[in-house]
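Appendix B. One record, verbatim.
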Amino acid sequence: MARPSFRDQFDKATLKAMREVSAKAKARLTAFSFAVVDDTPVLSGKLKGSWQLTRTGTEFIKDLPDDPDGQVTKARLLQKIKYLPIHMDWQIMFGTPVPYAHKIEYEGWSNKAPAGMVRKNLAVGGERLKAIYIGSF
């Protein structure tokens, strides 16, 4: 059997590297988004159920169901993350359309989340996400 060409070997190695980096990025994005959901205080579950991952420039869905324990929200986020492409940069936003979320995050409206939900997890998760940037080819 003929040995694979250099081009074939290079393409295979490139695909392997892209898959590995993508898997790490997806794992870190999943951990970050799940931590934000877990740290979201619950009164009705509206805020916890509203966290979303969308393509940059796309509006957030405003009428998602309440999710007091966060399991449905996590499953929805995981489904989005799972299908992010491995061959291109992700142009995504993570957030919520709930108007009072910023008041909980920045103004201390909840004793259950005095350090916020996003800021607290960005301190750890943001550094981890930055650590996987490998530049452009």
